[in-house]
Design brief:
2 domains, single chain
Length: 218
């Protein structure tokens, strides 16, 4: 880099010196010629010099360009010499890092696929297990259903038997009550009939017979 800057500064210093030298030569030639002729000729040469300078490169400019190219080439060679290894190491490290990242991704992909296969297998097993559990629940439900139906039938039979017993008891009770009522009515009717048809003599006779039976029993 220092060499490049030094050469550039040298080229800048050389360019003005060349221009001053050219001006000095022109002035010296103008001093030896006739004033009028040299003025006209000098004007013509000045115009022609400006035209040539505008259309063509000077020797100094060409040398400066070549010098800059050489300096740039030298700078590139120096940079390549001193930066080739760091750049190569950096590229190598970057390449290894990328390769390692790809290996990690591939490893993670393989692990993910393995886990997916395991989960799929577990899900398949869970489906079978769920099916078995469902079948067990269905069987248990059927058994519970049969049990409930049996208990309901037994309860119904028991209620029916209790109802029949209650009805029989009520019928017997009503029958006895009816019989008692009929007997009472019959007794009353008999008493009424006897009372109407029994004379004083019959009444005394019945009392005497009753007293005799009591005496004989005692």
């Amino acid at each position: 880099m220092a060499l490049f800057l030094g050469s550039y500064a040298f080229a800048e210093e050389a360019a003005p010196a060349g221009d001053h030298g050219h001006a000095a030569v022109t002035a010296e030639q103008g001093g030896h010629a006739a004033p009028a002729a040299h003025e006209a000729e000098g004007a013509g040469h000045e115009a022609g010099g400006h035209e040539g300078h505008s259309h063509a490169l000077t020797h100094t400019q060409i040398m400066n360009f070549i010098w800059h190219c050489l300096n740039f080439t030298l700078l590139v060679l120096i940079l390549l010499k001193y930066l080739k290894k760091p750049i190569a190491d950096s590229l190598k490290g970057r390449t290894e890092s990328i390769a390692k990242a790809f290996d990690e991704l591939e490893k993670k992909k393989t692990e993910a696929e393995k886990k997916y296969a395991e989960y799929e297998k577990k899900l398949s097993g869970m489906d079978e297990e769920a099916k078995k559990i469902l079948e067990t629940f269905i069987k248990q439900g059927e058994a519970e259903k049969e049990k409930i139906i049996k208990q309901a039938q037994e309860t119904a039979e028991r209620i029916k038997a209790q109802a029949e017993y209650y009805v029989q008891q009520e019928l017997a009770k009503a029958k006895k009550q009816l019989q008692d009522e009929v007997a009472n009515v019959a007794v009353k009717m008999a008493e009424e009939i006897i009372r109407k048809n029994l004379t004083e003599q019959d009444h005394s006779k019945l009392i005497s017979e009753y007293l005799e039976r009591v005496v004989h029993k005692n």
